[in-house]
Amino acid sequence: MRTEDVLAAILTGLWRWDNATGIVSLDAEAARLLGLPAEPVELTEGAIRSRFHPVDWNEIDGIVNLAVAEGTLAEARLRVMDGRGRVIRTLRSRSRPLVDGRRFELVGTLQEVAEQQPGTAARTPVTGDWRRSREAFLLDAGRALAEARSTAEVLRVAASLSMPGFSPDGLAVFGVAGDRLTIIGHHGHSVGDEGPFAEMPLDTDYPAADVVRTGRAIYLATPEEYKERYPAAWPLAQRFGRESWAFLPLIVAGRTMGAWMAAFAYRVGFTPDERSVLSTVARMLAQALARAEVAESERELSLGLQRTMMPVLGPAVPGMEVAARYVPTGGGLQVGGDWYDMIQLPGGRAAFVIGDVQGHDVRAAGLMGQLRIALRAYAAEGHRPDAVLSRASRFLYGITAGGNGDAGDAYAGDVDAARFATCLYLEVDPATGTLDIARAGHPEPAVLMADGTVLVRSTEGGLPLGIVPDTDYPTTRLTLEPGDTLLLCTDGLLETGGHDMETGWLRVRKLLEEYDPATEDLEVLADSLVHAVHGPGSHHTTGPLADRREDDIAVLLLSRAAAGPAGRQAPPRRTVLTIAQAEPERIAGARRQLRELLHDWADGDQVDSAVLMVSEMVTNVLVHTDGDALLVAEATGEQGARRLRVEVADASDELPHRRRPGEMASSGRGVLLMEMLAHAWGVDPRGDGKSIWFELYEGGAPAAA
Question: Residue 646 pairs with which residues in a beta bridge?
């Protein structure tokens, strides 16, 4: 009797599906089962598709692709429809793909199913429950794995997956290191159980090694099957008491990066649907592990760059406390162009540098490293602050714009090559508190005085480094009084979170005023400044302005030890400012500084009077002399009974005199204002010019005055 006759007798038909041509060949019994005349026939794929329920046909594509990839049988249950769309019978299809390169043929059988086996309805494509639960599970699993940011998180997510209808109680992820199999992580096993499987040669007769070598999944439904196929590895697996195992390749971009083992405490038949779910999870797991590996490599590179390029602060400066912070932006490699540095100088002096190279990428970080080294070299040669910045500007211009002609050509031809940097360089003498500051387009320093007053100290400056090769950077000398704290920062601290320089400074100023050196050290102030911008230093914890890392942030704090007990004191408040003939706009800065100096003065009218007289005195110097004006303002005494003394000095010997301005005159009222508004005033001749001064008393003029 022929085989065809035997199959027909048991209501089983044969079919052959050629993937290349799209032709499906049916024998007589297969044709009958599909509702066609009982005779051999060849049909197109579209004609065959019309005979099956559309939902079931959609399942075939995934099942066939899975069988082709794994070299296993393709099994499915299919409902046959008549011309009116009614289900006339249910067939079970079993076929094996014959692969020849990219072409394959599917050869198998069709058999009518009288009724489903008990307990299998939820796992067959005939019902929608299994399919819906599977799709929901895969969506949740994909979302959870996509959000995992490290290998440890990926493994935790994989261990918590609850697959529809079957869930493994033991998982292991294997990686490849050279010619050996390694354990990346495991779940459902005790510590130390991974020992025999770690550092296993790839030619070992073990399922995971076999999967890595071949790139094909291995399903072991029973212990007997495991023992028969892998007798050497069976003693290692037997002690865990599992009943079924699935080993699947972890493939990314065509490369097998490892294997995933799912072990079950009960027997699993590994139906096509179950294999499909496991294969899909394996693909998602491989992609999640690849993303985590890239992210961890970037984090390691980022931390390495930061450790290399951002030095720790050097030895302690006698009589001073120093604190610093660097926070990179949230994107990319977490590195950028901001930096700070501390340089030891001869004679007990120290230099502090803070700067910002344009950009937040690796190139900016590289330029920052080169510029930092150059600054240290110039400082070590003994140059003054202005010479250090001049040489640094020429150096940066030479390695960016200078290599492409002039600066204009560089920006036109290679925009990425021409970059600049802002920088502030200062030298400090710890014994006297003297600061010599040179500034290249950088935000001005601020001083928190011992009594809590905050002033932005105006310092002369020049263009950012690297724009013009030969640029002058004038030096400004300030004095850091005992108990004062100097703040240096990059613009990221001020302009992050939708702020501009002005509103950002108001935010920082409030934090400085709230700082109490009696109960807090300088590290607390550094942390509070950074936290105010983007919250605590964690990617997972939100803060007041959660993770607004729009720009790199560098902060440097320098505090001079207080002469007396720590805490708020009442030493003299002093500010010094030079207004050059070429910078009349700095008169507005002088008015602002005086108001900041008198921020808690009891009489607001006196503050207005002082600002008016300062404006008049400085303007007179710029209008009636050829030199610059030097403003010195000092407030002394206890609050409520303080004395304000303001001096404006110039190099002219011509003394002011009383004038009688007409009603429409625009000048000539300076002396009259002094007589009307000041409690005391005068003119002191000097060898190199004169000094005009006035005094105001917070509680009113004393009787002796």
Answer: 633, 694
Expressed in angstroms, the distance from the first to the final Cα of the chain is: 136
pLDDT at position 668: 60
Return all residues near 502 (Cβ < 8 A) that are at least 6 apart.
none
652 vs 665: CA distance, rounded Å: 24
Tell me the pLDDT tens digit for each residue of 371-404: 989 999 999 888 999 999 999 999 999 888 654 4
How many whole angstroms separate alpha carbon 701 and alpha carbon 75?
104
- Please name the amino acid found at residue 211: V
> Around Cβ 294, how many Cβ atoms within 10 Å?
10
Q: Are residues 649 and 691 in contact, defined by beta-carbon separation less than 8 angstroms?
A: yes
Report whether 364 contacts 400 (CB < 8 A). no
φ, ψ for residue 303 (rounded to 5)? -65, -35
Banded model confidence at residue 409, pLDDT cuts 50, 70, 90? very low
CA distances from 669 to 142, 608, 616, 681 (A): 79, 17, 9, 15
Pairwise CA distance, residues 217 & 229, whole Å: 14
How many whole angstroms separate alpha carbon 314 and alpha carbon 176?
Answer: 43
pTM, rounded to two decimals: 0.57
| Neighbour tally for 640: CB within 10 Å | 10
Q: CA 279, CA 260: separation in Å to the nearest integer?
A: 10
d(CA 617, CA 492): 37
Domains of the chain from N-terminus onward: 3-113 (3.30.450.20), 135-301 (3.30.450.40), 318-397+420-533+550-560 (3.60.40.10), 573-697 (3.30.565.10)
- Burial (CB count within 10 angstroms: exposed 0-12, middle 13-18, buried 19+), residue 528: middle
**DSSP states of 473-513:** --EEEEE--TT-EEEEE-HHHHHSSS--HHHHHHHHHHHHH
The encoded tokens of residue 608 equal: 């207005």
C-alpha span between 624 and 689 (Å, rounded)? 13
Q: Could you read off the pLDDT of 26-57 as tens digits, one per residue?
A: 888 888 888 888 888 998 888 888 888 877 77
Residue 384: DSSP 8-state: -
Q: Is the pLDDT of residue 667 over 80?
A: no
Report the candidate in 267, 224, 473 with the shortest Cα–Cα distance to residue 353.
473
3 state SS of 159: helix
Is residue 566's pLDDT more than 70?
Answer: no
- How many whole angstroms from its chain centre is CA 703? 64
Tokens of residue 388, six digits: 């250090």
* Vertex 103 angle, CA 100 and 108, to 5°: 85
Would you give the DSSP letter of residue 396?
H
Cα–Cα distance, 372 to 550 (Å, whole number): 23
Residue 694: closest CA among 583, 614, 586, 595: 614
How high is the pLDDT of residue 447? 92
Nearest in space to 491 (alpha carbons), one of 358, 368, 393, 592: 358
388 contacts: CB under 8 Å, gap ≥ 6: 351, 375, 378, 379, 425, 438
Please answer whether residues 392 and 423 qualify as being in contact, where contact means their C-beta atoms are separated by less than 8 angstroms.
yes
Q: Where is average pLDDT lowest: 114-128, 302-316, 368-382, 600-614?
A: 114-128
pLDDT band of residue 116 (cuts 50, 70, 90) is very low
pLDDT the model gives residue 335:
63
| Burial (0-12, 13-18, 19+ Cβ within 10 Å), 184 | buried
- The residue among 628, 642, 640 whose CA lies nearest residue 679 is 642
Residue 658 neighbours by CB distance under 10 Å: 9
Confidence tier at 568 by pLDDT (50, 70, 90): low
